[in-house]
Specification:
240 residues; alpha+beta; Arc Repressor Mutant, subunit A; Beta-Lactamase; 6-stranded antiparallel sheet; two-stranded antiparallel sheet; 48% helix; Tscrpt_reg_IclR_N; transcription regulation; DNA-binding; DNA-binding transcription factor activity; IclR family transcriptional regulator
Amino acid sequence: MDNHSGVGVIDKAAAILGALEKGPATLAELVASTHLARPTVHRLALALEHHHLVGRDVNGAFVLGRRFAQLAATVSEDRLVSAAQPVLTVLRDRTGESAQLYRPHGEERICIASADRPVGLRDSIPVGTTMTMTAGSAAKVLLAWAEPERMHRGLARARFTAAELEKVRNQGYADSSGEREPGVSSVSAPVWGAAGTVIAAVSISGPAERLTSNPGAIHAGAVVDAARQLTEVLQRTVIA
């Protein structure tokens, strides 16, 4: 395969990223594997790190950066929505409550798919609605497994605590009642991408008088099952 595009700086950056596909590497190891000059590797690696295409592990070695997971999630969104719709419909019918799929959107979260309860009192969230990351069960799920910087930034303004996020990680789901909006309860669980990051949250929401103040006790199993099904679909098709 021809690895030369004719644009030297791009070819060199691609060589560095290709080397990091095999795992963490020191500067010396990158020089050895790419056969590029040490100053060139150092300069390009730092530039790639600035754009989060390269990161560092706990030992200071270079690794592929978090931007790749973010880009993959964006590219796969249409397929994610297509895969989610039947899963959300089954979840709605199983629980009798409106179901949604949220993904991070800057400092907020956005509803990218939904299946509303057809009749009666319901919590209806139109597709495209942006919501806070400081309250609600979906916000807890999306922050619980976020990178530390994003998590700490969210916790600074959140109505929940770091201890609550630890509980979410331990039990595998989050719930809330009256946290985002008075009288509304919800339950959410994480959807995992192939890169091992949480890319979305599956949720149900509805009136607290029906879901109670402890909605997880009633519906956590159904929501976790739906999130697991969607995760399995995504990982089989390798779209995230």
